[in-house]
Design goal:
The protein is α+β, with helices and mostly antiparallel strands. It has helices spanning about 5-25, 25-35, 40-50, 60-65, 140-145, 150-165, 205-220, 230-250, 260-265, 270-290, 295-305, 305-320, 365-370, 420-445, 450-470, 480-490, 500-505, 515-530; strands spanning about 60, 70, 80-90, 110-125, 130, 170-175, 185-190, 195, 325-330, 335-345, 350-355, 360-365, 370-380, 380-385, 395-400, 405, 415-420.
Length: about 525
């Protein structure tokens, strides 16, 4: 890996790459890389498309070795941008006043912050440049499954039903027969209604593709989005590009009818970059949404791909033996969900699964594709001694102007992004409260008797975390009251101040038992403050 790069020079290189793609009729190469199913940043997508437009799976040299494959002799590496991080010791500042926070001795409190210090060029290779063990690919699995007319029809029906029943999404999809018209479908931005013309779009594949195109219009060009004022050609190019990416990902028929207008984007690279970023964001959102409709099949696929490898890697990483059936604390970094799950062995089928505290069963592969292990809460009838906190491995980093991401330990970027840094920080704080509540629930059911040290630490953490979330200094409250308030904050994350929390609690139904508990928690806190005065 080379030394830090000059971002000014890199920016010039990226703009030149983008211009070359347009002028040499290679815009489709960029869309093909976006359709490969991997979440590259826009800049890295552009770099990959300019160097190896047929790339489908990118990994580093050592990572390929770990997967049982080796880079073929003479293959040229692909350069991508990789962030570097540095830790800085800073004085803690009060988020509200900006003043330095001091300890009991009057000394400034310090904290370690990890920030992006720059970028380097990392050398990676595509799977086509390697040889060795065959690697099952979820995109190939999905495409093969959709070769069946029955599977495709089922997925299309699920997609339409999900859109039409999602109360948070104003869009709706309807099939109508307009024999006198030549269009396959249309989107009405005044009513947010998508119409599939079954007189023209007759097969399931045609209807699905039209639905994807018009749905892209609905996401990009609705009345609430300023993009609805773009010229019609611009909007068609965006929707068609997004539909191309999604259709190619699922192995559906692809064509690109808006190449004429797409070419005009090259006349203004700023417009071009904005337009393509929007296409990438919406197509990724659509693929994620459609994949969620076949999550069970995808889970089965992941569980089928060498579960013994997942098991051995997990045991080595956590220094445990799954036959001891430990209990793991997990976090979904995308939505901040924290849960604990006990490892169970299925002796008949000779594999391990995870049974969560909500009695759901998860394949071990979910620990690669969705969840991150925070702690081994219990193992061999012993409770964890060194308790790892969410704040230890989740950070907010700036990935580009006006966009921040939640990153995990080691710099791995999750799909969770924000337009403001403090929004990401609040998300991590909320996830931290969820960890304390989950730990409290675990301690209430474990059969291990020696839980005092963890109970004491968790009670202190929950008190600090709730206080930090609602901006309440020196919070002192009973543990059970913090639990009640913590769960209320999970359901109402916008209550981010003590005043807003109390106002909301006093507006609730006074006859509800949960309301009584919350009011008691607030009243108890008020009494404690009076005594302190």
């Amino acid at each position: 890996m080379s030394n830090k790069v000059d971002l000014t020079e890199v920016s010039k290189r990226l703009e030149q790459n983008l211009e070359d793609l347009f002028k040499n009729d290679r815009f489709q190469d960029l869309l093909n890389v976006m359709a490969s199913g991997h979440h590259y940043s826009f800049h890295n997508t552009l770099l990959i498309a300019s160097q190896k437009p047929d790339a489908t799976m990118i990994r580093g040299f050592k990572h390929w070795q770990e997967l049982g494959r080796h880079v073929s002799k003479g293959e040229k590496s692909i350069e991508i941008l990789v962030p570097t991080f540095q830790k800085e010791i800073e004085q803690k500042l009060d988020a509200k006043t900006g003043e330095i926070i001091k300890d009991e001795q009057g000394d400034a409190q310090l904290e370690v912050r990890e920030t992006i210090s720059g970028y380097v060029f990392g050398k990676v290779f595509d799977v086509s440049q390697t040889s060795g063990k065959e690697l099952p690919n979820v995109q190939d699995f999905v495409q093969n499954n959709l070769q069946s007319e029955e599977s495709l029809s089922e997925l299309y029906e699920r997609f339409v039903n999900q859109v039409n029943t999602d109360k948070k999404n104003p869009l709706s999809i309807h099939e109508e027969n307009h024999e006198q018209e030549s269009y396959g479908g249309f989107y009405n931005h005044n009513t947010d209604k998508i119409v599939i013309n079954t007189a023209v779009s007759k097969t399931t594949e045609e209807q699905f593709r039209v639905a994807i195109h018009e749905y892209a219009h609905g996401l990009l060009h609705n009345k609430a989005n300023e993009m609805h004022q773009y010229p019609q050609g611009h909007k068609e190019a965006q929707a068609e590009s997004a539909a191309y990416i999604v259709s190619k990902y699922y192995g559906l028929d692809t064509n690109l009818t808006s190449t004429g207008y797409i070419a005009t984007w090259a006349q203004d690279l700023n417009v071009a970059k904005l337009a393509i970023r929007e296409v990438q964001q919406v197509s990724s959102q659509m693929i994620e949404q459609i994949n969620s409709l076949q999550s069970e099949k995808i889970k089965e696929f992941y569980q089928s791909i060498d579960p013994s490898k997942v098991k051995s890697e997990l045991e080595e990483k956590l220094q445990i033996n799954l036959k001891d059936t430990p209990t793991l604390q997990l976090v979904d970094p995308k939505n901040g969900l924290v849960l604990f799950a006990k490892v169970e062995e299925n002796s008949k089928e000779n594999h391990f699964i995870l049974r969560t505290n909500t009695n759901r069963y998860l394949p071990l592969s979910d620990l690669e594709s969705r969840y991150h292990v925070i702690n081994v809460l219990e193992n061999k009838n012993e409770i964890v001694k060194e308790f790892k906190k969410v704040e230890d491995f989740m950070k907010v980093t700036k990935i580009e102007d006006g966009k921040y991401a939640v990153t995990l330990e080691g710099g791995e970027t999750t799909e969770r992004t924000f337009t403001k840094k403090f929004e990401g920080q609040k998300f991590i704080q909320k996830t931290a409260i969820a960890q304390s509540l989950n730990t409290d629930r675990f301690l209430s059911i474990t059969n291990v008797k020696e839980t005092g040290h963890l109970q004491q630490k968790n009670e202190k953490l929950l008190n600090e975390r709730v206080g930090k979330y609602v901006k309440e200094k020196s919070r002192k409250a009973e543990h059970q009251h913090n639990v009640s308030i913590g769960w209320h904050l999970m359901k109402n994350p916008l209550l981010q101040s003590k005043e807003a929390l109390e106002k909301d609690i006093h507006s609730l139904n006074p006859h509800n038992n949960q309301t009584k508990e919350l009011k008691e928690a607030v009243a108890t806190k008020d009494k404690e403050q009076e005594l302190e005065k």
